[in-house]
Design a protein that fits this description.
The protein is of the alpha/beta class and about 500 residues long. It has 17 helices and 20 strands. It folds into two domains: about 290 residues, 3-Layer(aba) Sandwich (Rossmann fold); about 190 residues, Adenine-n6-DNA-methyltransferase TaqI, Chain A, domain 2 (Alpha-Beta Complex), CATH 3.90.220. The N and C termini lie far apart (about 60 Å).
């Protein structure tokens, strides 16, 4: 049987990279597919499997291989494979034929059909029970690596999903939401997707519906963003989800992790369900606490009760979108300009401006046309919105000090978030305390539990709980010099706040 399985794997082909990126496809490496297939718990005698966005059939192969190797084998396996890319169909048909031969050797009845259509266009009538749909299949298993691509708000795809009661901005969550509708009660789903659905406002409708309909059983994360899809330029971390269609919530969820390599070790632990999805969280963020450090960070953060409104603070995204304001940008300060601050101006906890020989402009014309892009002089806490793939810290905070940069107005570029008080600056002690808190390791460890991509959005910062104002001011008053080492900053934050 090993020879036959190897033949099945050899039949898989890889389409051109340009075509894959156009469709949002990232084909599943076989070791990842094998791991996904191993997560199914059910011992169905009749398997009715949906493989949406099937590609060349790697996921179907993996599951058939596993089921054929069981001591107590199922009687029947039926697969519906959906794939829109015509260049993959020949290979997909060949792969499914190989699955049929493997099942024949294992004395398992096998049938398969290939749907060469856009999955969303085909599935919406099925999920909605369209009267003109001749058959409404219900699957007891689904295995999927859906395409990853944003959906325009005015696109036909977005309108189709909306007609099925699904509101989402990315293809992958659209696929998963439709699949959950097509699953029978008790049906299992195993999917590999970006982690971005775990947090943020855009995915809240998806999270709410998914968590109401499905019972999470396992979440597996890869320690490196590039590990699972090493041949592709994947910026987001990936997560494998195992869930059962059942509104009852389990007592615990298995959280596991690996480095993504074929022979890499897998670590796993059981986490209380409410430690993954808090019943008190209106945004329904999904937390992936992979170890003791994450548990400790969450316990510490739970002690803080202040929200930004409690502190009298707001956080906004920088108003200057440089490519839209290109005609007003200047490489160096002039008499009619205001400072323009980018992440490249961050230096040892404070903004150092202007930056000589910088690739980014240092200034923006200050006039009536740009006035709404600028904010008044003051002390502001800035946070980078984007971090590099494997940057050491996800949240990087810095202080803009108007005592060091003398200008009546300042522009913050769109790659920054800025904390303010009704559009104005903060007292220095509060700014120092807030920046130190945000830069602490405990906040970074906590934040990474629900944020799995390169962005730190203003909504994520609003979702955090903070120490009360007096505590932040007391912490800030103890910071006399910039550029503290991380260990020194963590010790100071721990002594003052914990």
């Amino acid at each position: 049987m090993r020879v036959a399985v190897k033949q099945l794997e050899n039949e898989l082909v890889t389409p051109g990279q340009d075509r894959r990126h156009e469709l949002g496809q990232f084909l599943t490496p076989q070791p990842v597919a094998d791991f996904m297939a191993s997560l199914f718990d059910s011992r169905w005698q009749e398997w009715n499997l949906l493989d949406a966005g099937a590609g060349t059939g790697a996921l179907s192969v993996a599951l058939v291989k596993r089921l054929c190797a069981l001591r107590y084998k199922p009687r029947n396996i039926s697969i519906m494979a959906c794939e829109v890319d015509e260049t993959l169909l020949e290979s997909l048909h060949s792969t499914l034929q190989g699955c049929g031969r493997e099942c024949e050797r294992a004395d398992i009845r096998f049938s398969a059909s290939v749907l060469n259509e856009d999955f969303i266009a085909a599935a919406v009538p099925m999920a909605g029970g369209d009267l003109f749909t001749s058959s409404q299949p219900r699957f007891n298993a689904a295995i999927v690596n859906p395409p990853y691509r944003k959906i325009r708000s005015d696109s036909s795809t977005r309108l189709l999903l909306r007609s099925a009661g699904i509101e989402t901005s990315n293809l992958y969550t659209g696929f998963v939401a439709l699949i959950t509708k097509l699953l029978a009660a008790g049906g299992e789903l195993v999917a590999i997707t970006p982690r971005s659905f775990c947090n943020g406002p855009y995915f809240k409708p998806f999270r709410t519906d998914f968590l109401e309909t499905m019972s999470l059983r396992r979440l597996h994360v890869f320690e490196s963003r590039s590990a699972a899809f090493s041949r592709d330029d994947v910026l987001q971390e990936n997560v494998i989800i195992h869930a059962v269609k059942n509104s009852a919530k389990p007592e615990s969820v298995i959280i596991s992790s690996s480095n993504g390599t074929p022979t890499g070790a897998i670590s796993e632990r059981e986490v209380n369900y409410h430690g993954v999805v808090s019943p008190n969280d209106p945004l329904q963020f999904i937390h992936l606490a992979e170890g003791e450090a994450q548990d400790n960070a969450r316990a510490i953060m739970s002690q803080f009760t202040a929200t930004l409104p409690d502190l009298g603070l707001s956080v906004s995204t920088g108003r200057v979108v440089d490519f839209r304001a290109k005609e007003f940008l200047r490489q160096n300060p002039e008499t009619d300009t205001a400072p323009l601050i980018y992440p490249c101006h961050f230096d040892d906890g404070f903004v150092h401006w202007p930056k000589e020989k910088a690739r980014k402009p240092n200034a923006i014309i200050s006039n009536e046309q740009t006035r709404e892009l600028l904010v008044p002089v003051g002390v502001y806490v800035l946070v980078k919105r984007f971090t590099a793939k494997e940057e050491r810290k996800r949240i990087v905070a810095c202080i803009y000090d108007s005592h060091q940069i003398h200008a009546p107005l300042v522009g913050f570029e769109n790659h920054l978030n800025y904390f303010h008080i009704n559009g104005h600056g903060l007292p220095m002690a509060l700014a120092k305390g807030l920046a130190a808190f945000l830069n602490s390791t405990v906040v970074d460890v906590y934040f990474r539990q629900f944020n799995g991509h390169t962005q730190v959005n203003a909504t994520d910062l609003r979702s955090l709980n903070y120490p009360v104002k007096a505590e932040l001011e007391s912490l800030g008053s103890r910071i006399s010099t910039p550029g503290l080492l991380q260990a020194e900053l963590d010790a100071l934050v721990e002594d003052e706040l914990f």
